[in-house]
Design brief:
The protein is of the alpha/beta class and 549 residues long. It folds into two domains: 163 residues, no CATH class; 266 residues, Rossmann fold. Helix content is 48%, strand content 11%. The protein has 20 helices and ten strands. α2 packs across α3 and α7 packs across α8. The radius of gyration is 35 Å and the shape is globular.
């Protein structure tokens, strides 16, 4: 028998020489290799790379996706918040959604250019969607004090809540894309990479701080006694009520809920005085349940501004009556006191003239009689003052636009800005000093979103409502009243207001009529001389009217 010592056996498709003495040994064939994917399920990174593959494979596809997601958010935001976020909830949601949109844009495009393209796309689409929205905070930028402040509190704050998170998110998204697909490469070396990460971390910390600030709730201090204990039966609250079809904000404070109720109407239109009322007039709360109302489109009621074509003088009177009836019912009082300052005194006079049966008495401070007559005096006095001081530039501007009335809010800026120079007096003698309206900004009664929008509310509401006040002249239309009428004026009130009031006051007929002139005050006597104002309210107003039917 002959043995072939060169016999070969095929293993795995290859010929393998075997020794002759191995001919009778069993031949073991190794199992075929299995694909790696069959041995383990794909991880999150693998799935992400697979999902984003089409966008990453073609930069144009990634760019289109980034633009699409940014434009989509611009469409939604322009419809949802045409003036930008107006409430704390809207602000936080807007910030969160913008951050997510930025991350998506950077991730699908895998390029840091998304930090520019995404926010620009959002801004362009947003501005197109809200073209029908009116007001200084959304109009074109003008080179004047108010003209520059308006976009800061409007577009500027919105950019902080939306554009900043989109930019930050795009940076995070682009960085994440590079981690998922390292072959793409970020470039720039370790120094550049660590610098970008540090910048992103700092921006992220700043955004977190902003959100924490936005989340701080508004509050008003409890009313306490000398020992710091809450006064039994007292009330101290911030509340929002749906009245006359609008969510209207009220601050209600008083030592006893069975004290007479007094509703306060702030000036403007567009002013808010919660800080001034709480800080400067706490003694008034011992004798009255003091209710400070932020009118529609102002302060904490700023979200109720739109639609602006429903902002009317008659509507504000109706709002006043609705708030009055709410308070009468809540505190079980047939009549309440109505106290107005400046524009609030105009609104208050109209309310008590039309609905005297709801009010115990009226108190007007810095009383307006005719906005148009006052503005024309301001116009002439400002021109004369500028001429005396050789300010040709200031003279030229009002001469160019002509005397009031004006259709645009910003045309009133000259008189509003120079009042203290044209009609000077020593503010340092007063409790409020030079602070005025600005003293309302940093108080607990306003959340951060409210503080930012105090100036926006003034400008936007003033621009809509003030032109509707030009036909008011109480010298012709409001001289007879059925309830007691009290007035508190400042000895240093501007001539444009004081002269018109002095013509009107002698013609007023009422069951009781009285005038107090506070010697160091100007247009804001309740807060410039609060002690004297409280004394007058208790010693004269309350003493002569409480219990009067």
């Amino acid at each position: 028998m002959t043995i072939d010592t060169n016999r070969s056996t095929t293993v795995g498709g290859k010929g393998v020489q075997q020794p002759a003495d191995a001919q009778d040994l069993p031949v073991t064939h190794p199992a075929p290799e299995q694909p790696a994917a069959a041995s383990a399920a794909p991880g999150p990174a693998q799935r992400s790379r697979s999902a984003l593959g089409p966008a990453w494979a073609d930069a144009r596809t990634g760019l289109a996706a980034a633009v699409a997601v940014s434009a989509g958010w611009g469409l939604i935001a322009g419809w949802w918040t045409p003036r930008g976020p107006l409430t704390t909830a809207q602000a936080i949601w807007s910030t969160a959604i913008s951050l997510i949109v930025g991350i998506l844009a950077g991730l699908v495009w895998r390029s840091r250019l998304a930090m520019l393209v995404a926010p620009v796309t959002f801004a362009v689409v947003f501005e197109l969607v809200r073209l029908g929205t009116d007001g200084p905070t959304v109009d074109s930028i003008e080179t004047s004090t108010y003209g520059l402040l308006a976009p800061v509190v409007g577009r500027g704050f919105h950019a902080l809540l939306s554009l900043f998170p989109i930019v930050l998110g795009a940076a995070v998204g682009a960085g994440l894309a590079r981690r998922l697909q390292p072959t793409i490469g970020a470039g720039g070396g370790d120094v550049g990479r660590y610098g970008r990460r540090a910048g992103t971390a700092i921006a992220g910390a700043a955004l977190l701080a902003l959100v924490v600030g936005l989340a701080r709730p508004a509050s008003t201090d409890a009313i306490v006694d000398a020992d710091g204990n809450v006064v039994p039966g007292s009330v101290a609250e911030l509340t929002t009520n749906e009245l006359n079809g609008h969510d209207l904000a009220l601050m209600i404070r008083g030592h006893r809920t069975d004290n007479p109720v007094m509703l306060f109407l702030a000036g403007g239109p567009g002013g808010s005085e919660m800080g001034a009322m709480r800080n400067h007039l706490p003694e008034l709360e011992e004798h009255f349940t003091v209710v400070t109302w932020d009118q529609r489109g102002t302060g904490k009621s700023y979200p109720e501004l739109d639609p602006t074509d429903t902002i009317t003088l008659d509507g504000f009177i109706d709002d006043t009556i609705a708030v009055t009836d709410h308070l009468r019912q809540r505190f079980d009082q047939d009549r309440i006191y109505l106290f107005g300052q400046s524009w609030g005194a105009t609104l208050g006079t109209l309310a008590v003239q039309q609905h005297p049966e709801r009010y115990q008495a009226y108190i007007g401070a810095g009383q307006m009689v005719s906005q148009l007559a006052t503005d024309r005096i301001f116009y002439q006095d400002t021109l004369a003052w500028a001429g005396r001081n050789g300010d040709d530039g200031l003279v030229a501007k009002p001469e160019e636009i002509g005397p009031p009335p004006y259709d645009r809010m910003l045309d009133y800026e000259t008189a509003l800005s120079y009042e203290h120079e044209v009609y000077p007096y020593d503010h340092s003698m007063n409790d409020e000093g030079e602070g005025g309206f600005s003293e309302n900004f940093i108080v607990d009664e306003y959340a951060l979103i409210d503080q930012v929008h105090l100036l926006a509310g003034f400008m936007d509401t003033f621009s809509v409502l003030y032109p509707q006040l030009q036909d008011i002249d109480f010298r012709e239309t409001a001289t007879e009243f059925e309830i007691p009428m009290f007035f508190v004026q400042g000895a240093n009130e501007a001539d444009g207001r004081a002269d018109v009031f002095d013509e009107w006051y002698p013609t007023v007929e009422a069951p009781i009529k009285d005038l107090a002139v506070l010697d160091t005050s100007g247009h804001r006597p309740p807060w410039e001389q609060p002690d004297e104002f409280v004394d007058y309210m208790v010693g004269t107003v309350l003493a002569e009217t409480e219990g009067r039917s």
